[in-house]
Specification:
With about 525 residues, the protein is of the alpha/beta class. The chain has 3 domains: about 270 residues, Alpha-Beta Barrel (TIM Barrel), CATH 3.20.20; about 50 residues; about 110 residues, 2-Layer Sandwich (Double Stranded RNA Binding Domain). The protein is about 40% helix and about 20% strand. It contains 16 helices and 14 strands. The strands form 3 sheets. Strands 1-2-3-4-5-6-7-8 form an 8-stranded parallel β-barrel, surrounded by 7 helices. Strand 2, helix 2 and strand 3 form a beta-alpha-beta unit. The chain starts with 12 loop residues before the first strand and ends in an 11-residue tail after the last helix.
Length: about 525
């Protein structure tokens, strides 16, 4: 018989699935190095459980989960598995080296999913619940079971499945709102019903995994916590399939800000939130909307005169939390072209970066170059420099030089380009419908690919005409989608960097097998 160890009854476990469910968001896939950077950031935040991936999906996913399991020492590392022996065995193999490991296995339980997706009778599904959990429990001590489409599962059958999973050895039971269909009072009633009707419910922690299709993922998660759920599954910035998942930063800060209404705590160090959010955005190219709660650019901005007046008199008039509580510091002019390496290194440490000597030297050279071109260098500029260097650290193809001729006297626009391709310099020139098109055509002539451009997005890092441009490019090739990022004060240079970065990722993608779909 499994049992739940003594624990704080008001402690909420944070289960982060950015690396698994979050990565399933179109264009959001990460390579191994990027996944490890995110995993380390999550561990530093104090995340209890990191769902590292779906090991059976591909060799690349298996290796990523295994490396996260090797790297993370404080957080529990979980892998996802369907209710089959092959999935579960592969998952156990991937997480075997983790000091704290969990197998998370799932099967659909709603009438709609059982009939059309699984094409199984309810009794067969119930039998698979017991068998899969028991097999997983023979391999690891920590097993989580999920009822996919749990919010649309018939109550009686859900209770039977939960009871069976607990009897078979599951210590965590997850009820997902897989398609974001639930509303808070309804979802809370469903979780409360389990506590009332499942006889062995005291032997497991109840978890919830809510999607945001109706914009209610965070509200549904908090409603479930209010009636007894003690694990919340979420992602940084709320990324994930379709409209995304419950945003971890919103759940954590809601609990921290309203203890009068929700007397629950997490183990998250909230001062890491902004840094982790920015890291994920730089890796995926998914910029956070300005009015996004907690981590949006406008979350602590006040433009209204009435609001500004109140803020000057007492910040609490219009701020229910401090910027510092989520790791946000005021962007000020901190360094210039006369600043030395020691000051630059201190600033990197202040911003949360711990880089090796070679990486610091490369970033410092970029900083000095930027300081010569830009009147004011802000924290955001330094973040962009470092992230841009890290993004390109393992690229096989690199930009050497770019020259653009455009305007009223150059029709069509012309581009001259040099690329370093595995140590060999190749050059070309060409024209296009605009300067970006001309530059991208040159890249394609040197790096043949059938990739289709799905997204081209430019974002100014700071204000002013001399601001660095951060460019995101999304390419699709044979069903594989990748994002590339580039930053530079020259928007065209940033654009080519982003395009080349995406092509580098495609080179890696071509070596991976097609992934198996997973959902919750």
């Amino acid at each position: 018989m499994n049992s739940v160890p003594e624990r704080d009854p008001n402690r909420v476990i944070v289960f982060d699935t950015t690396l698994r469910d979050g990565e399933q968001s179109p264009g959001c896939s990460m390579n191994l190095e990027e996944k490890l950077r995110v995993a380390k950031a999550l561990e530093a935040m104090g995340v209890d459980v990191i769902e590292a991936g779906f090991p059976i999906a591909s060799q690349g996913d298996f290796e990523a989960v295994r490396e996260v399991a090797r790297t993370v020492t404080e957080s529990t590392v979980a892998g996802l598995a369907r209710a089959t022996r092959g999935d579960i065995d592969r998952c156990a193999e991937a997480i075997a080296v983790a000091p704290r490991k969990r197998i998370h296995t799932f099967i659909s339980t709603s009438p709609l999913h059982m009939k059309y997706k699984l094409q199984m009778a309810p009794e067969t599904v119930l039998e698979m619940v017991g068998q899969s959990v028991a097999h997983a429990r023979n391999l690891v001590d920590d097993v989580e079971w999920s009822a996919e489409d749990g919010s649309r599962t018939e109550a009686d059958f859900l209770c039977r499945c939960v009871e069976t999973a607990i009897d078979a050895g599951a210590s965590t039971i997850n009820i997902p709102d897989t398609v974001g269909y639930a509303v808070p009072d309804e979802f809370a009633a469903r979780i409360g019903m389990l506590f009332d009707r499942v006889p062995n419910i005291d032997r497991a922690i109840i978890s919830v995994h809510c999607h945001n299709d109706l914009g209610l993922a965070v509200a549904n998660s908090l409603a479930a916590v209010g009636v007894g759920a003690r694990q919340v599954e979420c992602t940084l910035n709320g990324i994930g399939e379709r409209a995304g998942n419950a945003a971890m930063e919103e759940i954590v800060m809601a609990l921290r800000t309203r203890p009068d209404h929700m007397p629950y705590v997490t183990g998250i160090d909230t001062t890491h939130i902004t840094r982790a959010s920015r890291l994920l955005s730089s890796i995926t190219g998914f910029n956070v909307q300005p009015n996004k709660a907690i981590v949006g650019a406008n979350a602590f901005a006040h433009e209204s005169g009435i609001h500004q007046d109140g803020m000057l008199k007492n910040a609490q008039t219009y701020e229910i939390m401090t910027p510092e509580s989520v790791g946000l510091t005021k962007s000020t002019l901190v360094l210039g072209k006369h600043s030395g390496r020691a000051a630059f290194k201190d600033k990197l440490r202040e911003l949360g970066y711990e880089l090796g000597d070679n990486a610091i030297n490369d970033a410092f050279a970029r900083f000095k170059d930027l300081a010569d071109r830009k009147k004011e260098v802000f924290d955001e500029d330094i973040v962009a420099i470092v992230d841009d260097e890290v993004v390109r650290s393992n690229d096989r193809i690199r930009l050497v030089s770019l020259e653009i001729m455009c305007g009223t006297r150059h029709n069509p626009p012309m581009a001259r380009l040099e690329l370093d391709m595995d140590g060999e310099i190749k050059a070309t020139e060409g024209s296009g419908d605009g300067p970006v098109d001309a530059a991208f055509r040159c890249v394609k002539s040197l790096v043949p690919a059938t990739a289709r451009l799905q997204l081209y997005q430019v974002h100014a890092v700071t204000g002013g005409t001399d601001a660095q441009a951060e460019v995101t490019v999304r390419l699709e090739e044979n069903g594989k989608t990748v994002n590339g990022q580039g930053a530079d004060t020259d928007t065209m240079v940033a654009s080519v960097k982003a395009y080349v970065n995406a092509l580098n990722k495609l080179l890696v993608k071509r070596e991976r097998t097609a992934p198996v779909a997973a959902a919750e």
